[in-house]
Amino acid sequence: MKKFSTAIAFSLITGIGSAWAQPTPPLELADNVPDRHIVVKGDTLWDIAGKFLKSPWRWPEIWQLNKEQIRDPHWIYPGDIVYLDKTADGQPRLRLGRPIGGGANAGGSGSASTNPEVVGTTTKLQPQVRVAKPDREAIGSISPALIEPYLSKPLIVGQNELTRAARIVATQEGRVVLATSDVGYVRGLEDETTTEFQVFRPATPLKDPVSKKVIAYEAQYLGTAKLVRKGDPATVMITSFTQEIGIGDRLLPAESPKLINYVPRPAAKDLEARVVSIYGSVGQGAQTSIITLNAGSSQGLEVGQVVAVWQYGRAINDRTEPNKKKRTVVLPDERNGEAFVFRVFDNISYALVMKAAAPIDVNDRVTAP
Fold first, then answer.
1. What values do phi and psi take at 69, rounded to 5?
2. How many CA atoms lie within 13 A of 11 on its CB side?
3. pLDDT value, residue 249
4. What is the rounded CA–CA span in Å between residue 250 and residue 129?
5. Strand pairing category for 305-311 and 265-266
6. How far, in Å, are 180, 202, 254 from residue 158 at the CA level?
7. pLDDT interval class at 133 (50, 70, 90)
8. pLDDT band of 261, cuts 50, 70, 90
């Protein structure tokens, strides 16, 4: 196992946040770590970091670019080369380069950087200026497709906030549920100039798994629809869905989501939270699931923070214990995975599960990573 201690503070690298002023455990490189990776379309910074680190969210600690490059992953394009080496004091670092003389990212983007050129078995380094190319699609911190639908509209609403929103009152041919390309009939469209909509299920209460009190009301995102005929009722066609859509579901005007190039950092050390729900599921969560936490800005959580998810230790019967009264033993909690907080309200947060060794359940414990 390869370990490196690091004294690099997140706030010194990125200029944002103070959470990294706290001591962090030594970095561990991934097993069979490569010395370089050629960026391909579909890569994310998290994916790339996972090739080099056992804790991919700690990539800002060893990503040796300037502050603006760290803040904006759009400096990194398919065809670029991410390679691993060490600083003068033995710390691991990732650096960005591209083959000299062209390559898939001949335009590149950003400021001056050192780039490798492989000639035979020798790697030459040469500084070059990287000029932005607006026609080239850069990579992001995480895949936007996983969270994009959950950024453009509040998921946490007032108890009766959606009561007056446009609603589906019937389906074509009496279908029970609607999916892509199906037609529904809607009443309550006040603005007939709007043609693109997002579909939500009416708000349902979220209960704290500890206190059992209602701490928020959540409107579940179901999909998108477009207006195909005005009137009362108006006619809409479902253009996408994440869950089945039916009578009584609400429509709100669609807005373009504000995508952020998230920079991960750990949640505060004193965080103690629980999983309130697995978004869009009545079962268990897994990698890429969205989970709801019973902590938000009031508890110090911020967008971009990483949390650890723990499975509670189960109670077992120790048959080796001669004293029957002492046979019940509770096993220790086990760290199950990591999640990335991308949406924060007062007392509720939404996080994307980035890693899960086992299914995630409601009431699982959440702490700093």
1. -65, -35
2. 7
3. 95
4. 51
5. parallel
6. 29, 11, 19
7. very low
8. low
Q: Does any domain span residue 314? A: yes
What is the arithmetic mean of pLDDT over 222-251? 93
- Flag whether pLDDT at 229 surpasses 60: yes
Length of the chain: 369
CA separation for the pair 337, 357 (Å, rounded): 6
Choosing from 219, 253, 287, the residue where a domain stops is 253
Q: Look at residue 22 in the predicted model and tell me its pLDDT.
A: 43
- Say what the pTM is: 0.71
Picking from 41-45, 72-76, 105-109, which range would have the lowest pLDDT averaged per residue? 105-109
Q: Which residue has the tokens 């709801």?
A: 292
CATH number, position 361 = 2.40.10.410
- What pairs with residue 360 in β-bridges? 285
Token pair of 173, please?
Answer: 């041919």
Q: Which amino acid is at 260?
A: I
| Residue 283, both tokens | 């079962």
- ∠ CA 92-94-99, rounded to 5°: 135
On the question of pLDDT at 256 being above 90, the answer is no
**Those residues with Cβ within 8 angstroms of residue 240's Cβ, 6 or more apart along the chain or in another chain:** 180, 223, 224
Is-contact 292 350, C-beta < 8 A? Answer: yes
258 domain residue, yes or no? no
183 vs 218, higher pLDDT: 183
Q: Is the domain of 220 the same as that of 284?
A: no
Q: Indicate the average pLDDT of the chain.
A: 77
Q: Maximum distance among all alpha carbons in the chain?
A: 77
Instruction: List, in sequence order, every residue forming a beta bridge with 241; answer none if it has no partner.
Output: 223
Quote the domain boundaries for residue 355.
Answer: 267-367
């950003």: which residue's tokens?
Answer: 110
State how far the Cα of 162 lies from the Cα of 219, in Å rounded to an integer. Answer: 8
Same domain, 141 and 156: no
Distances in Å between the Cα of 303 and the Cα atoms of 10, 24, 146, 207, 341 are 15, 20, 15, 22, 5
The Cβ-side half-sphere exposure at 211, using a 13 Å CA radius, reads 8
Task: Count up the domains in the chain and report the number.
Answer: 3
CA distance 20 to 42: 29
